[in-house]
Design a protein that fits this description.
15 helices, 45% helix, Rossmann fold, 12 strands, binds iron/sulfur cluster, four-stranded parallel sheet, alpha/beta, binds 1,3-dihydroxyacetonephosphate
Amino acid sequence: MLKEENNDLIEKINDLKRQKNAIILAHYYQTPDIQDIADFVGDSLALAQEAVKTNANIIVFAGVHFMAETAKILNSTKKVLLPDLEAGCSLADSCKPEDFKEFLKNYSQHTVISYINCSADIKTMTDIVCTSSNAVKIVESLPKDAKIVFAPDKNLGSYINNLTGRNMVLWNGSCEVHNILSLERVINLKIEHPNAKLIAHPECKAPILEIADFVGSTAALLNFTIKSESNEFIVATETGIIHQMKKSSPNKNFIIVPTDDTCSCNDCIYMKLNTLEKLYNCLLNEQPEILLSQEIIEKAKKPMLRMLELS
Ligand code: 13P
Ligand code: SF4
């Protein structure tokens, strides 16, 4: 898109936002133009907290489906819009409600902790939701000998098991972006950049997490790069986060970890389905909207509220 067309679209989006008392919440994996037009950019936890406290009538969620659904669950009187309804999540899709229901029959005495990257249906079968920024705290809030099922991310689950000495039963799900980041490429990058800090999202596989200097949510990774005295970072997560890292520390160097493929891009195809044009159309037409039954909202809200209380 030409720069003038882009500016025109930005102006029109801002006008509509004012007219309709709408707010744009964006995740760090969105494209830079969307992050820059958003009222708030954050990780899953901060976005959920922002959705709770907003006074806007309309929430436009520039993120993926489970995030917009979470906003609707937490603030159900608001109209919640998602620029592209196809913006799903491979991790959420790796845990189908019918399969999870069957699985839980084997663990009826267990407390169920679900990572926020799951559908509203999975949340209705959950005792406490967590995100990557509070997962350890949520697990540690339960007694040491508590029996726990953790879903859907096996990488995050096994990371917490190692960190806390727990033995949570793990659902076998993963994120197709983080799960294919290449350990070999990480090791080569560390050799090429001996002074760089390796920072990783906990959805990465265990061998990468084991050698990382810092593991955390997108917001925590960003914060680490701001506070660290280091000038160079090898970043094991989705590419979108680099925009805020560069904005906050323009003189630091950020190297994104490539995937195993010949392609070195690790964009989340679902996050990247949202565009400025779709965002404009969705504000204009107030579609596509996230709609959930009152029953699902009430059931899914309980484990979400438990998480917010513990955060
Ligand atoms: P954060 O909560 O760390 O932003 O992670 C969300 C996500 O989808 C990571 O892939
Ligand atoms: Fe889902 Fe992975 Fe994309 Fe995050 S990066 S939204 S976990 S597919």
